[in-house]
TrEMBL record:
InterPro entries with a match to the protein in the record: Mannan_Polymerase_Subunit, Nucleotide-diphossugar_trans
Protein family membership: Belongs to the ANP1/MMN9/VAN1 family.
Protein name per its UniProtKB record: Mannan polymerase complexes MNN9 subunit
Species of provenance: Remersonia thermophila
SUPFAM superfamilies, alphabetized: Nucleotide-diphospho-sugar transferases
Amino acid sequence: MARPLGAVRLRKANSAVLAVGVALVLFVLLLVISSSTPDFSPARKAAAALHPLSPPTSPFRKSPAGAMLQPPPVARYNLNNVTTTARPLENRENILLLTPMARFNPAYWDNLLRLSYPHELITLGFILPRTREGNLATRELQKRIAHVQTQAPERDRFKSVVVLREDLDPALSPLASQDERERHQLARQKARRAAMAKARNALLVSTLGPSTSWVLWLDADVVETPPALIQDLARHDKPIVVPNCFQRFYNARTQAMDERPYDFNNWIDSDAARELASAMGPDDVLFEGYAEMATYRTLMAYLAKDDDNDDDEGERDLHEEVLLDGVGGAALLVKADVHRDGAMFPAFPFYHLLETEGFAKMAKRLGWEAVGLPNYKVYHYNE
């Protein structure tokens, strides 16, 4: 008999297909249940935010599947209860560690994991450019983050991690080219440093939370620091404190490993620099370290004492302080209140300064001082 038009012959379901379907349903149910109960310690659960719109400095619990999302709670914060002291470890003070990154350096990440400050008190923040190198760096960074936050012991997991992508024109990106010689050319400095300032500001305002006590800026190419970097810098109890950034290299003359200064943006101003600035137009910028504009400033990079001269007072020498008028961003510890007070990284000529050097000037105008530690060293990657 002919089958009526449009009739459909039903076939008996294959048992293997049914088994796969049941397994898939069970997997989805397990995923929903597990995602609603994150594996945090009681201390972390107590600090967890109650809503996704809460500040990003704490993780939040997801609502159960199908549950109606409650309206955001009214959050009240008493910033007078946020301490910023010389003993951050004992006072359980929260650290916001921020890094603008264009390419991923495994040595930077390994050094980050060696920091002895409790990771559950550290929030990490990164901003990366939308370039080919930036895309590669983002993938590598996310691999490391996923491994640490899900597979490492809980003591090694960070409080939370924020990854941002910058929307700057790649041609203006401060990290569009990572060749050291090219990116430090004087002709590129104004656009590069202005773009870097915008990236820093975007990262800062997106991550600074009401419980943050300190902000540590750490360059993505800083590959070696003392494990107690945070505690060592905070013990000075200064609004802004910066160590000396050096670079290890092979000295062909002595045929041995050696070190040399790297960051020349930590300086004490000079009369010559002030005279140069006074003759500049309103949009001109004074850059340090170029023969075309000799400033004769006192550079902290050259104030470091040789290790061979260490004596019984070496510990005090390690923490010797000098007042600074300009700072670099290789490693920079800032009390969060300095940023809350309005000290940012100017992307425009501010007293003929940009970015981190302009930040030091802006902070000083707001009444905050910066100190440098000439004998306390961190090390930059040697290209």
